[in-house]
Amino acid sequence: MQRGYVPFLYFVTVLGLEAAMQKECRIIEALQNKLTYRQRLQYMKHYFPINYTVNVQFEEVLRASNITRLRDQNVSELSLRCLWLSVNSQVLLKIGAVLLEKHLSWEYIQDLCLLFEHLAEEYEDCNQGNVDTNVWDVVEQVLTGDTGSGQKAVRPKALLDNCVKVMWMLYSESCE
């Protein structure tokens, strides 16, 4: 191999990763635009009855403190992003399940679900072999609806507020 020579495959791999990251960041940007405070307030609070709550599993209340604790346990960023994606996809489905198609928030939730589906396509690595074991157990529990841990009544806006805070923690450095 010549000195200073970099194999073509290296460039293809780097360019492929950059392109995937750019697409992921565009989806995250679209989510940020959809999940502004004003829109969350309008669609998840003002258009719902006062003190309305949705029953979710304890694991579906993913807060920034959970991410910090998992990072302290050296859980990979891929695992954390897969967890965030899985949890919030299920949360959106639960919120959408209580809405009628003519509800003012229905289309908003459908748009968010679509963005999460596009993001899920970017995370084909979110399977048991590539995700930390303790995170995979939680993902599996959320996806299967195993309610062994119990239910919690949470306001829809609070669920999306947590979604935004965790999204910022996970993507602020890589998607400026």
UniProtKB/TrEMBL annotation:
Gene3D superfamilies: Interleukin-34. GO terms for biological process: positive regulation of cell population proliferation; positive regulation of macrophage differentiation; positive regulation of monocyte differentiation. PANTHER family: INTERLEUKIN-34 (PTHR28606). InterPro entries: IL-34, IL-34_sf. It comes from Gopherus evgoodei. This is Interleukin-34. It holds the Pfam family IL34. It comes from the Eukaryota. One of its GO terms (molecular function) is macrophage colony-stimulating factor receptor binding. GO terms for cellular component: extracellular space.
